[in-house]
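Hi R.,

Here's the chain you asked about this morning:
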Amino acid sequence: MNRATTHSPTATERRRTWPGWSHLPRETRDTLFLLCVIGWTVLPHLWHLPLWCAALTAIVLSWRARLALIGAALPGRWVLMGVLVVAAGATFWSYRSLLGKEPGVTMAVALMALKTLELRARRDAFVVFFLGFFLILTHFLYSQSLLVAAAMLLSIWGLLTALVLAHMPAGAPSLRTAAGLAGKTALLGAPVMALLFVLFPRVGPLWGVPQDGLASTGLSNVMSMGTVAALAQDDSVALRIRFEGPPPAPQDVYFRGPVLGHFDGRDWTPLKPSFPAPMTPRAELRVEGEPVRYEMTLEPLRLTVIPMLEASPTAPVVEGVRVTQRDDLQWVAERPLYERVRFNGVAYPRFRHGPQQPLIGLQDYIDLPAGHNPRILAWAVAMRRDPRYAQADPGTLAQVVMSNIRTGGYGYTLTPGLYGEDDPRNAIDEFWFDRKLGFCEHYAAAFVVIMRALDVPARVVTGYQGLDPTPVDGYRIVRQSYAHAWAEYWQAGVGWVRADPTSAVAPDRVLRSRPLVATPGLMAGALSRVNPQFFASLRDGWEALNNRWNQWVLSYSRGSQLALLERLGFSSPSWEDLVLLLAGVIGAMAMSGAGWAWWDRHHTDPWLRQMDRLRAALQRLDVSAAEHEAPRTLAQRVREQLGAAGEPLAVLLDRVDAQRYGRKGIARPDGRLTRDFAAHARRLKRLAGRAPPVPCNR
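And the predicted structure, written out as tokens:
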């Protein structure tokens, strides 16, 4: 009879076979868990790190995981030193420095990865833990968003779990047990964390270092054909605004940003006056009607210009930043607002501004570069020669240009293509006479060039126009997709007059706040067609959550702290009151903690208390039980001295040993097991007392 031969796996095959997480050795399991936590902690940094650093980190972590799985030796010190020198050299090559935020974070990530190759003792593990906690802090140098905070909270939980495992060297406690203990520990520290957040003084620039990504997009001081269209395809939030009462009509919702008065034939940039200050036009704001009061939360900006609702006569109060108004009605901060800010404002939808009488400085707003767009200039000259418009005022001329846009077959699109590829000097000519397809910046630029060709001062204004129709958490949202460009021309006796050529070609854009939407990709388009309302509600819900995080957490400032002290009864709160209150509360918490520690010191560890009861029960049965002996040792002795009668006690002792030191150990002793053990011991004691006396030989 042939017997089937059994195949014994080789060492290589055993290495390649995954035994399952629960069957891994304790040291291997803990190491892999720590590597996963480190990988998760480093993951959000991949968008900031050089490619070589991300690759090095992935290779080192994978290498360390493989060494843990196969039980191989860790690399020598010289190997690590060589890799460290290479990492430092690559960092210097990438940033030309080893100092600063970017090179510092890069080196911290590389050091964290390399340190995992030195995990030989608990001391090395503790270094990795605290490097991990430091690395978590570095994420907030880039962003304080809700997603980053949630990801780092998970990292903290993972590192605390690994720290708990390092303090539980005996047995094989489960990850669930360690994670539960880490979670309880974090919850115990949460009140202290909340207290420090509320009362720890906000002192600049410490609280201004995190820049939340430094506004990777937004308005610019330079406009060329296509720049606003590119920005308008970004659906991210630019600002949130909450009105005290009904919002203004959509056609009145203009947020004034950079004013661009200089044109070099290609780009529009802010104007540098050619004349001294007394000869240049001033703001001279004149408001009418009822004001619109609002509260604005502004996302981080790349510029110093604050896009205020037109027209706001009073400066926004931004803590720690001086804001002034320029002659072109822009509100400008003394530095870019790298952090999210919130302020109250007042605007007047009905207003006039600028000089009412001619000034020589207005000549700057008529100048055009020589040799550019000759057909536009000829068209303007022909209009001036027309008897109907020879003496027409600027308002009439503007209406003629707007009428030409409405009836001239022009189209409004995000993707008009490039103009001026053959000759950049004729870009606006090509748009106005040939292709007639453009976005708001095309129409605003062409309008201003035509008005200047008609000897009417004009300029381009950029900013945002319109807002989302439905409030989210009480706020109306203005997105980057609402970026807009319009024009202003000057008229004697009136001042600067707003003219929005977009309203002539795409009235829904201005009258109903309906910006063009970029064509979605295949997957996004299919999903939105299935249930567009569902995805819109998801977006609104997420933005409401983000807004609450911004308002309650990120916008909590020094002024909020002092306002809190006023509500607590301080008449004129100051930093000294804040520090004294914080010290007093921390002192009271410290005293409470000391009292709890004193009380806890007089209570025995529940595991030790259980063993004391088990040993006392065994000693009543005349079974010796020393304090240093483990439950399994006592179980063996019970079997030797009591035989079959003591088997129930031995089984219970084995269970105690498994609960405390086994792979599936529990956090606290089983009280029912202790009671069952005492009951069996009493039963054996009674049986021993009833046994007949042993006869003696005489």
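The CA atoms of residues 56 and 227 lie 37 Å apart.

Let me know if you need anything else.
M.
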